[in-house]
Design a protein that fits this description.
With 117 residues, this protein is mainly alpha-helical. It has 7 helices and 4 strands, in the order E-E-H-H-H-E-E-H-H-H-H. Among the domains are: 38 residues, no CATH class; 38 residues, no CATH class. It is 44% helix and 7% strand. The longest helix has 10 residues.
Amino acid sequence: MAKYEYHGISGLKNIAAYTGIPFSTLQARINKSGMNIEQAVMFRPHVISYNGIQGIDAIAHANGISPMTLRHRIYNKKMMIEEAIKYQPSTSQQFIGVRHPDISDVWKLALGMRIEK
């Protein structure tokens, strides 16, 4: 007897083929998420939408943000979608290169720098 049965179909691979859900997805829902077969088949993931655009990748591209950055802001920083899109990181730290360091000509020569006269 098969371990899983759904609508008269036995076996997880057969259930996956019948429902159109990838086998690995069903397996993860059961083993990692602790769902039973009915829950695993009926589960519909929440799709994020913003201004009529669905999915994080599409939202990110439409707003000029990388999808990885948007995911990080939503899932790691726990921001709401609108906040994550409008977030502007602080620009208080600016890195300024040194064009004319105050060092002797001997050091400039040793470092391969131009000696300006």
